[in-house]
Structures are given as structure tokens and as C-alpha cells.
Amino acid sequence: METSTILWLFVAAFGASALGGVLGMASGIFIVPILTLLFGVDIHVAIGASIVSVIACSCGSAAPFLKGRLTNIRLAIVLETATTLGALTGVFLIGIVSTSFLYGLFAFILAVSAKQMLARRREVIDASAPNAGSWATVLRLHSSFPDHVPGRYVSYQVGRVPLGLSLMYGAGLISALLGIGSGVLKIPAMDTALRLPIKVSSATSNFMIGVTAAASAGAYFVRGDIDIGIAGPVALGSVVGALVGARLLMELPADKLRIFFVIVLVLLAVQMLLSALGVHIPGGPA
Question: What residues have CB less than 8 Å from 23, skipping those under 6 apart?
């Protein structure tokens, strides 16, 4: 492989992971179209490289987010159980549910999520005393994080954990059926059901997507779909990009970050709707 190609792979992965790191989404949503459209990589090899990039992105941003106390680890562990269970259920349902219906459902969910997130663009932190009998209190999920914009620690409560678990199950189910990352659904679920600050949602989602991707990386490696010549520079670019994305997330105002995420949700909803209607976008969902 030529040196210039390796360099461009690094640059592409850097940009995709920086964006994914800021949004708390799997960078594979951006990596796969880039590799297939711009570099002519086979779709299976592109997906294998994207999984490696997701793991690298998650690992790269984990340390800054943990050091910055943005990641709610206890909550991530609780939610990941539901996402994993949903993904396992989705594996058994592959081929039973119409793909077009799923893409249409996904587009609808993304559009509704975008509307709800836009309605909450001005975050209001619940300052009341937590309910002693709630799941979040019993599991000790309430926490705080340092917000660099106002320059102070902000305490927040985790609400409606049962609803959040249900939505996480659905996120894992749909992601398994469509073969896409569930990060794009996790953040709206945490925002809508759990009422988390957007920075906490993004950081916690970043932590979770690495665990999910690691579970499937072995299968792609055994099948020979991970090309080291492509996955290597992509992984390196992803680590550096993730560190930059983590820094940007901690510095960006919450309202600007929320609007940025809404724009991405709308674009993805349009892509999914076109796929549901049979309009294929190269590099997009097949």
C-alpha cells in the first residue's frame, strides 16, 4: 500500500473519530462510507476496519472522559446489560423482520429523537431531592460532572431507569438487525428517558460502544474481514481523533453540542428513510 494512501486513511479516521468522539457515536457510521466511497474498499473489510476504529475511539477517549468525570460507569454497566440482551435477541430475529420496515422504523425513531432533543436544547438540571425508592437511588446512579463552560461542578439525577433499560434493549435489538452501531440510539435514549446532561450522555455512550464492538471484533477477525493494512492506520487515526473529540466535548457549550447532534440525527433519518423506500446510497445501509 502506498504511503499517501496510508496517510489519507489516517486523516479520514482522525476526522471520523473526532466527530464520533464529540457526539458519543460509533465512528463506523462515518468510516464505512468513507472507505467504500473514497477508497474503494470492500464493504465487509470496511465494516471490519470500522469495528477496530470504534474500539480504538472508545479506548482513546475513555481516559480523558474518566479523568474529567464525565462518564457514569455504574450507569454504563447497568445499561449495557439491556443493550447486549437486545443485540442477542436481534441475532435470532435476523431474516424474520422486513429490512425495509426496520429502516423506516429507525428513521421514525431518529426523527422523534431529534425533535425531543431540540426541545431540550436548554438543559434544566433537576435540583430537587432524589426519590429514595427509585431505581437510580437504589443503584447509586446519581452523580455530578465538571462543566467547563460555567466553571463549576453540576450535580444531576438519573431518572426513569426502567424506561431507559427498555429503550437500550430496543437500541441493541435494532442495531443487531441492521448491522449498525447503537450509539446513535443510546444518546437520545439517555437524553429522553434518563434526563442526563448531553455531555454525560456522550461520554457514557463512548464508554459503552467500545464494549459492544469488542464483542463482535473477534468474529470479523476469524472471518478474515480485518485487513491490517487498512485497519492499522484507521486505528491510529481513530485514537488521535478520539483524544481531540474528547477535548472538544469537554469544552463545547451543551446547547451547541445538542444542536450539532440533532443535525446528525436528521441526516441519518433521511438516509434511513431513503433506504426504506429502496433508494440505495453508496456506502450507506444496504
Answer: 183, 187, 202, 260, 261, 264
Calpha distance 278→179 (Å, rounded):
17
Rounded alpha-carbon distances, angstroms, from residue 101 to 54, 62, 95, 184:
27, 35, 12, 18
Q: Could you give the angle at the alpha carbon of 255 between the alpha carbons of 161 and 180, nearest 5°? A: 55
Alpha-carbon distances, residue 79 vs 8, 84, 85, 170, 189 (angstroms): 36, 9, 10, 12, 10
Once rounded to an integer, what is the mean pLDDT over residues 124-137?
A: 73
Chain segment 188-200, per-residue pLDDT in tens: 888 888 888 888 8
Burial 252-264 (b: 16+ CB within 10 A, else e): bebeebbeebbeb
CA 232 – CA 216 distance, rounded (Å): 18
Rounded CA gap, 222 and 229, in Å?
A: 16
